[in-house]
Amino acid sequence: MCLYSCACHWLSGEPQVPLFTAPSVVPHYNPGVRLVEYSRTSGLPTFIHQYYLDLQAANTAGSDAWQSEYTTQQHYSMADLGPASLVALKDKMVDPGSQEFRQYWKYYTVSPPEAMAPPCDHDCHASIVCGMTNFHMAQFTSCKQAMVSGSTTSHGAGLGWLITFSFILACVSALV
């Protein structure tokens, strides 16, 4: 969800701080904005509702109509966005064919038209999954190599590194 990007910073071997990257409002496909709700008692994020603008439809109609793209409660059946819940979701996304990962990729790219939807090959998938919980380059590289070791293709390397870079950037900012 960009949890789109979601990630958790790990302290003492346990997930502690959820990190989120937001969708772009100056996109390659469609712009997106995200509403994140927080618990006033715990301070933890509890809910994400992402909206997007279908640029093709807006251009055809001559006006904009922002639409709901997803909610974490409805589309991922998540009760909250705490670190443990995000790690559980990431664990489901280890399978590139899982419903969770397919949804993640669709929402990560902000619901592009089907004909324009970018593919996410083994390299891209490994970059996303490993980038969610491995914030040190050596750990990330090891995780990614383990995930793609059985793959014979690597067409999404550029996109995978872009995704990884955004996660690493978020982590460095959070640690400073």
Descriptive report:
The protein has 176 residues and is α+β, with helices and mostly antiparallel strands. It has one domain (6-175). It is 43% helix and 19% strand. The protein is built from seven helices and five strands. Helix 5 (122-133) runs antiparallel to helix 6 (137-148) and helix 5 runs parallel beside helix 7 (157-175). Mean pLDDT is 79; it is low at 1-6 and 152-176.
Concise summary:
The chain has 176 residues and is an alpha+beta fold. It has helices at 55-61, 72-76, 83-92, 99-108, 122-133, 137-148, 157-175, and strands spanning 6-11, 14-20, 32-38, 45-52, 67-71.
For the structure shown, list the relevant keywords.
176 residues; disordered N terminus; alpha+beta; 5 strands
Cross-sheet strand order for the largest sheet: 3-4-5
| Mean pLDDT across residues | 79
The biggest beta sheet is recorded as: 3 strands, antiparallel
H/E series: EEEEHEHHHHHH
The portion of residues forming beta strands comes to: 15-25%
| Count of domains | 1
The rounded Rg comes to 16 Å
Low-confidence stretches: 1-6, 152-176
Helix content range: 40-55%
